[in-house]
Design goal:
Radius of gyration: 23 Å
Helix content: 40-55%
Number of strands: 7
Structural class: alpha+beta
Distance between the termini: 35 Å
């Protein structure tokens, strides 16, 4: 029988072991059309084209289908997540398959959590479903050592559990206005997504022993860091085939990718 040991914890060893309103297209695009007709005239003449051929309908299509910033962010996070899954699957063949197929009704799982689903959760849960707390094959439990990727069906329950553990004063002091758990252990520790009062995204960690700690200043840095933990041989499999990590390397590589985060400088 496998005995769980403390993994991917704070490097001093503390921590419990796991057990708007819309616009009518005509009204909205009319001022843009006027602006772009005048500005495109010179450009089109230099290319030998007549600006009159650039119609209001063309403008509508341009704004409707050009990539938005949110789409670019989601694509970036999706690519990072897929890279991480690929590295995970190379070290533990079958891990990606163990995460299951995504649910078609993603929004239904967030109705009691947030009115707007952050892009990281769309990127993750449009790819996989996650890991159940009672997963049968324990070697597939860890997304990072000691923490599983919360299964989408358990997300709301883990959200309420986390909110019940957090101290309101700590949340206010950190300037956090949105909290959604992403990873959890088998006890009461979490790695979670946060949006701060100034609308910046970050990744935090909470455990009853260590309290609230910021780990990464963005979702992208979170994935870039844990990808580096694979590529720089921080993560490895122990003698029983479970994901483990090198204590010293974790601190060094983490600090390189997150130089302004106190946690990694301790």
């Amino acid at each position: 029988m496998w005995t769980v040991k403390s993994r991917f914890r704070r490097r001093n060893g503390n921590g419990k072991n796991p057990d708007g309103q819309g616009f009518k297209s005509g009204d909205f695009f009319a001022p843009f059309a006027k602006k772009y007709y005048s500005s495109l005239g010179g450009l089109d003449s230099r290319n030998g084209e007549n600006a009159d051929c650039f119609s209001l309908s063309d403008m509508v299509q341009f704004f409707r289908y050009r990539p938005t910033n949110r789409n670019r962010i989601k694509i970036m996070i999706t690519n990072l997540f897929r890279e991480y899954l690929s590295l995970s699957d190379k070290m533990r063949t079958g891990y990606k398959s163990s995460l299951g197929k995504p649910h078609s009704s993603l929004e239904n799982f967030f109705t009691e959590i947030t009115p707007v689903i952050p892009e990281v959760f769309r990127a993750v849960y449009e790819e996989v479903a996650g890991t159940h707390r009672d997963i049968a094959i324990q070697k597939y439990m860890d997304f990072v050592p000691g923490y599983r990727l919360i299964h989408i069906e358990e997300l709301e329950r883990e959200f309420h559990t986390l909110m019940g553990l957090l101290d309101l004063d700590d949340i206010c002091e950190a300037g956090i206005k949105t909290i959604i758990p992403l990873l959890a252990d088998y006890s009461s520790s979490y790695i979670f997504y946060a949006k701060t009062d100034d609308n910046k995204e970050a990744i935090f960690h909470f455990s009853p022993d260590d309290g609230l700690q910021k780990w990464h200043n963005s979702v992208e840095l979170f994935f870039e860091t844990i990808i580096a933990f694979y590529t720089e041989n921080v993560f490895y499999l122990d003698d029983d085939g479970f994901l483990d990590y090198d204590f010293e390397k974790e601190g060094v590589i983490g600090a390189i990718h997150n130089p302004d985060i106190e946690y990694w400088l301790e």
